[in-house]
Every structure is written in structure tokens, then in C-alpha cells.
Sequence to fold (281 residues):
Amino acid sequence: MQLGIHLGTFRQPTLEATLDAVCGHGLVCVHFNFKAVGLPSMPEHVDDAFCEHVAREAAARGITIATLSGTFNMIHPDREVRRKGLRRLEGIAAAARPLGTKVVALCTGTRDPDDMWRTHPDNNTPQAWSDLVDSMGTALRIAKKHNVTLAIEPAVSNVVDSAARARQLPDTMHSPRLKVIMDGANLFGTGMLGQMGEVLDQAFELLGPDIVAGHAKDLDADGAAGQLAAGRGRLDYTRYLGLFQKVGFHGPLILHGLDASEVPDSVAFVRAKLAAIAPTC
Fold:
């Protein structure tokens, strides 16, 4: 697999210095968020020339942009907020190709009006699902227009809160442009940590063919998405990484949920696990 990191992990004064930090850890790909270069995460307008500059600087260091953040709350209770997010997604999708990536990462969202990563009891209502399908339909039309792939990430705090729900959405949308980012630390609802093997196995069985990127972080409690550096929690990394291998995934594995000071230890941890399961990963 290609080990990478969320670009925003490194707080450097320039793009070049930030990419140098990535390169300095021997990492070969990044998840790109415009916030990491001083812009809003979902800017109103993205200049092609700037995106091409980012792509050139990354390529000069042997770094590829694996995924691009297009996250907004796709089921926000305010319809106008959803419409605004979709308008900005158009600009993000247009920027993907100049940046050198084909994959735009999404957040399926929550009914919480203030935090798209916080759970809400109304996430499980039929109307929430209907709003997601409506938002995703528009998003997929945008993706087709700009020839990109959209990737959802199942997370216990969102409307797509499990592997089963993540399977249900592409089965509903019937689009080859809708894929999955796998993050094992996001899958454990309340009381589920004791079923770690079963939960991970089911996730890869249901979603394996549609995985376009993996995330490497950790968790120490269930009921919420983990936000610990890989190797600092309870996720069974031997099983987790072995399942990527089992489904034939050899793409980007992106570290996040960590501070820059934690990067060396997490990189070493993940590399050791990869070497143990398959020296050629």
C-alpha cells in the first residue's frame, strides 16, 4: 500500500515546507484539504493555476494527491446549507483534475446543525436518508460532469454509520462514481469493541471491491469515531491491514487523527504491521 497522510497534519508557513515535511517522513501521498494551504475547506472559487502549482510541487517531491476533501453536511437540517455545500462541491470537483486526483472525499452528514461529525438521533429517520439520497444524486451529477469519483466514509456519528449502510447507499444510487474510504476506527458503535473481528470482517466483505482509499488512525472507546494516532489505541491493525490485503487493495493508506509530533511513531508502527503481513505491501 502507499502510505500517506492528511496534509493538514503539518503546520508549516508555506506549501513547499508542508510538502517537505511529508517527504521527510518518507510518505508518498496525501489527502488534500484547501484549509491546509490557507483557504477555506470548501472555497467559493478555486484557481486552476494554483491547483496546477500544488500538483507540480507535490510531484517534484514524489508525492501524489490521493484524495481531495469535499466534505460538507449532506443531510444538514437546513436545506439551504445543503444547497450551499453542493454549490461549493462543484468547485472542488472542478479542482480535482488540476490537482492530479480523481477522488473527492465526502461526509454523508448528520442532523446536528453545528458539527457534521457529531451524531444525532434523527440520523436514523427515513427523512434523513431521503435527504442524503437527494444530495448524493446532485453530487453524482457534479462528479459525472467533472469526471471524478466520490468516496463516502462510514462513521458511527453520521447517517451512513456502518458498513451495511455504506453498502446500501451505492446500491441505491447505482453509480460507478460512488466508492468508499475505509477507516476501521469509525465503525464501532456503542458496545461493539468486543466484536472487533466480526465488525472488521463484515466491513471488508461488504465494501472491499469499492474501496478507493484507507485511513490509518485508532480508537480507545466505542460509540464515536476514533481520533487517535495509529498504534495508540485498540484497533487490531494486524487484522485491519490484513483485510486490505485480502481484498486486493494496494492503494493509498492515509494517516490522520494525529499531531505532527506523533507522525514518526505512527509511521513506524504502520510500516512494521505492513511488513509483518506482506513484505510487498
